[in-house]
From TrEMBL:
Keywords: Apoplast, Disulfide bond, Manganese, Metal-binding, Secreted. It comes from Nyssa sinensis. One of its GO terms (molecular function) is manganese ion binding. SUPFAM superfamilies: RmlC-like cupins (SSF51182). Belongs to the germin family. InterPro entries: Cupin_1 (IPR006045), Germin (IPR001929), Germin_Mn-BS (IPR019780), RmlC-like_jellyroll (IPR014710), RmlC_Cupin_sf (IPR011051). Disulfide bonds join 23-38. PANTHER family: GERMIN-LIKE PROTEIN SUBFAMILY 3 MEMBER 3 (PTHR31238). This is Germin-like protein.
Length: 208
């Protein structure tokens, strides 16, 4: 019997860029997609692409001494599928934007006012800390998913504008996620992970 060789060709297609002019988010749609369903383009208006308020100083009277004013798809429906967003960050003197990650975006930070110590930590096993002090007009990049932070190292208020490579970059604040999860991560897990007594874990958890 003759041997027959059957060749099968598989094709897959992926388009990383939008396939239409825009896809303004329709928060009232019941459709479930990776993102938000599109509003009828005939109903789109200028305000779907507009946000006002980045000139307003953020209230930094909190334990961190900072305030993030996000401008993502939740604020501008027209950002849906465009892969970009931004934020204003205000810092009181010596205030911090605590260590956090953006699971879906890289970030480019521009200092508008003041002086900031910024940094990020590389992945395991090196966990190398890369830091720099930035002045007004300086720019710094935080790669996607890496833990990063900013601290105001001046005696006056500081302001930065962050641009992110996702319409919905997400944010995971490390301390909140570890010590403030609901339900809580078990004391024995955290005590072993941080090599401390469970009393220390309970004390830290009480802060979050």
């Amino acid at each position: 019997m003759a041997n027959h060789i059957i060749l099968m060709s598989l094709a897959s297609a992926f388009e990383p860029k939008p396939l239409q002019d825009f896809c303004v988010a329709d928060p009232n749609s019941s459709e479930r997609v990776n993102g938000l369903a599109c509003k009828n383009p005939m109903l789109v208006v200028a305000n779907d692409f507009f946000f006002s308020g980045l000139n307003i100083v953020g209230n930094t009277s909190n334990p961190f001494g900072s305030r993030v004013t996000a401008v993502n798809v939740a604020q501008i429906a027209g950002l849906n599928t465009l892969g970009i967003s931004l934020a204003r960050i205000d810092y009181a003197p010596w205030g911090i934007n605590p260590p956090h990650t953006h699971p879906r975006a890289s970030e480019i930070l521009t200092v508008v006012e003041g002086s900031l110590l910024v940094g990020f930590v590389t992945s395991n096993p090196e966990n190398h800390l890369i830091t720099k002090v930035l002045q007004k007009g300086d720019v710094f990049v935080f790669p996607v998913g890496l833990v990063h932070f900013q601290r105001n190292v001046g005696y006056g208020n500081a302001v930065a504008i962050a641009a992110l490579s996702s319409q919905n970059p997400g944010v995971i604040t490390i301390a909140n996620a570890v010590f403030g999860s609901n339900p809580s991560i078990g004391d024995e897990v955290l005590a072993k992970a941080f090599q401390v007594h469970t009393n220390v874990v309970d004390q830290l958890r009480s802060k979050f």
